Amino acid sequence: MGKLILILGLVTMAVASPFDFDFGFGRNYVETPLGKSIDTATLKLLKEAYNSAEDKNVVSSPLSLMILLSLFNSGAGPQTKEEISRYLGGADFESAYRDLSVRFADLNPNALTVANKVYVASKYNLKESFAFAVQGYRSEVDKLDFSNKEAAAAAINQWADEKTKGNIKDPVKPSMLSEDVAAALFNVIYFKGHWHVPFKAEDTQDKDFHVSKDQVVKKPTMRLTQSLFYAESPELGARLVELPYKETGFRMVIVLPNEIDGLPSVLEKAAQKGLLTDVFKLQPAGSDVELELPKFEVKTKLDFNELLPKLGVSKLFEEPALGVVKDQSVVVSKAFQEAFIKVDEEGATAGAFTGMLIVPVSLDYHPPRPIPFKVDHPFLYLILYEDNILFAGTYVSQVSI
């Protein structure tokens, strides 16, 4: 039986710099069934990744995993199909993820790159039905001699380096490969966005960050006072604020627990119901938001051999898949992800939208007080395109990478 490697989302995301924002422009988001299923599957995975991580700083693109699971499903065995269907949230997910892959492939590549790659061992061919599915996902297909482990790893890593603009290097080690690898499936999601609302570098100062109730460290913290979308969620025990990007349809949402040690509780609740319902409750705050947000940079390696069984998806490592490689049954031997995020105030592109609200003047008029939003303790963040979560992560304390 041959081996199949899923390298699920050699993922990187760079978050760059901003501009001014108006409340209506480009913000016609609609909550869709696919967006909701991505939401719940994302938060379930993030919770497990957080619980498994030692330093609790986590960044991941569960969507990258979901795209490859959907692709693999077209050639998987019946028990594997059942588990993947349950995790991805319905029977019609294959066409939904295929269409999403095509849609993302047609977006501005300077902002978002979504790419799939299938390598087939030199001595094998893809089964016709799987090759047809691969085409539907806009996947590239190449032959590769996995018995030459060094050359095979170098070829894969060159593709990853190119697609992630040099931000992820050498994710595949030669020791991960062997001559009995029949095929390998890859996905990359790379995002580089420019804020809609400017952070000025001169306003960044070292501020207290409460790692826990007992530990406080200093972090370079960006400052911004601006009209932003804002929401409070008593059910989650958290407040939310949205930072839009210049690139249409993209936004970051910060989910700040009310309590310093509240992140595990928020994650647990989010894993049960997702966060999209709360995200769609974001509204103009009615006054400026005084935002303080630490700069941070995180790199995460996730082992899906460990995490997927916790999500109820384990048969792909055990049950022979007859519909992937022609005349050969395969099982997944290795599934992993490497992800990266950088959040700061840098950027070379600038633009502005300025608006004024005119109100009658009276002696009794006082402008509303700004809403303080100090991100000074562990928090959760999302990067979305419309209602689809591209990246999700937690930040507890800076680590060197």
UniProtKB/TrEMBL annotation:
Signal peptide feature range: 1-16
Cellular component per GO, a single term: extracellular space
Signal in keyword set: yes
Serpin domain residues: 43-398
Listed SMART domains: SERPIN
Record SUPFAM superfamilies: Serpins (SSF56574)
MF terms (GO), sorted A to Z: serine-type endopeptidase inhibitor activity
Chain segments annotated as coiled-coil in the UniProt record: none
Alphabetical keyword list: Protease inhibitor, Serine protease inhibitor, Signal
Family listed: Belongs to the serpin family.
Name by which UniProt lists this protein: Serpin domain-containing protein
Organism: Spodoptera littoralis (Egyptian cotton leafworm)
